[in-house]
Amino acid sequence: MILCVTLNPCLDKTLTVPPWSPGQSVRGQAVSEVVGGKGNNVARALARLGRTARPATFFGGPVGEHCARLLRDHEGFDPLVVPSEAPTRTILTVRTEGSSRQTAFFDPDPSISPAEAEQLLRGVEAAISLGGVEAITLSGSSPSEATHGLFLDLISMARMRRLPVFLDTYGPPLETIWGFWPDVIQLNRRELAQHLHQDDPDDEEIFARLGTWHRHGVRLAVVTDGPDAALIQVEGRFFRALPPEIKAVNPIGSGDCLLAGLVDSWLNGLEPEPMLRRAMACAVANALVWDAGQIDPEEVARLEPEIELEPVEDVAPAAPTDRSGDSQGFLRVGVYGRATGKFGKK
User: Fold this and answer.
1) What's 33-86 look like in SS3?
2) Which CATH number is 223's domain given?
3) Is residue 324 part of a domain?
4) N vs C: which end of the chain shows fewer Cβ within 10 Å?
5) How far apart are CA 181 and CA 184, in angstroms?
6) How many structural domains comprise the chain?
7) What are 156-166's pLDDT values in tens digits?
8) pTM of the entire structure?
9) Quick check: 39 and 139 in contact, CB under 8 A?
């Protein structure tokens, strides 16, 4: 079983409308809803690939209760749910019929309390202690200060249990990572630019940072760029991975499906190049359907040979890593890991 942690879930509602302009009164033609949040998409894609996945997240208020029911009753998951005082947010996506245009409206992020953050940490620890967990995925943004260091705490816990960790995040949760590193990091080019404090880093600068992460113990790192080539480090080797041209229906969730493909391939023991082709094919297959994570395994298999992998040689080393923002994360490792020893005990 794979635990799929999401700190900032949502109810993702899609309203399909005829062509419209701001200021008009528009009547919807169809409405659908699904539980959103990157880790929930990962769990959904893993299930499509034949894996058992368990979402772990916060849900609050009537919307949160509805999300928990959807995961359990409509999708067959057994979610690990921490109730929150703050209500779960809703994201409304307005889809214009007959075009690929969509506009999303986001509720404000909820404020998760320190006690609720601690409860999720302990819930994941308890789930791991029961046995049967093969890997952990940590996905998405952090909604509030109390959750910024949770991914680092979970990485340290998993490392002590020798469980592979797959991280897809940005902003404060990424800045706290130090001391304990995940096996896999995935993010997009814009998110890495933010991490590097640059507007538009070139490929050489990105590969250099991937090399730095490898020296910290990150065995595989992927930087995606929409329909353009992904830049990859795997076991100290570097690649560009170019997906085929497609007519995308909805690219939302493609990165989550890529992560699911990496997890599935990793657990199957695939060699690096087949692993990368399969993961990229999962991302492309997701873009061919509207609902995030609902990939077709047969379509994935069809797309795998169409992924172009180009080895990259002579990657220059990066400048010394900027540790600004890392002190908080390092201290949390001490508090929750080394000093207490809580995560090292079976």
Assistant:
1) EEEECHHHHHHHHHHHCCCCEEEEEEECHHHHHHHHHHHHHHCCCCCEEEECCC
2) 3.40.1190.20
3) no
4) C
5) 9
6) 1
7) 999 999 999 99
8) 0.90
9) yes
- What pLDDT shows up at residue 320? 54
Residue 323 placed within a domain: no
- The answer to whether the CB of 157 falls within 8 A of the CB of 125 is yes
Secondary structure (3-state) at 102: strand
Q: How far is 163 from 182, CA to CA, in rounded Å?
A: 10
Residue in this structure with the two tokens 């050489």, named with its chain if needed: 204
Tell me the pLDDT tens digit for each residue of 98-119: 777 889 999 999 999 999 999 9
From 243, 255, 239, 170, select the one nearest 207 (Cα to Cα).
Answer: 239
Tens-digit pLDDT profile for residues 297-326? 999 999 999 999 999 987 776 655 544 333
CB 197 within 8 A of CB 232: no
Alpha helix (H) ranges present in the chain?
38-48, 61-69, 114-129, 150-160, 172-175, 189-196, 203-215, 254-267, 272-287, 297-303, 326-333
Domain span including residue 62: 2-19+30-317+329-344
> How much of the chain, in percent, has pLDDT values that exceed 70?
91
Report yes or no on 215 lying in a domain.
yes
- 29-40: buried (b, 16+ CB within 10 Å) or exposed (e) per residue? eeeebbbbbbbb
Tokens of 337: 């890991």
Decide: residue 135, CB within 10 A, 0-12 exposed, 13-18 middle, 19+ buried: buried
Tokens representing 15 are 């309203």
pLDDT value, residue 13: 96
43 lies in a domain?
A: yes
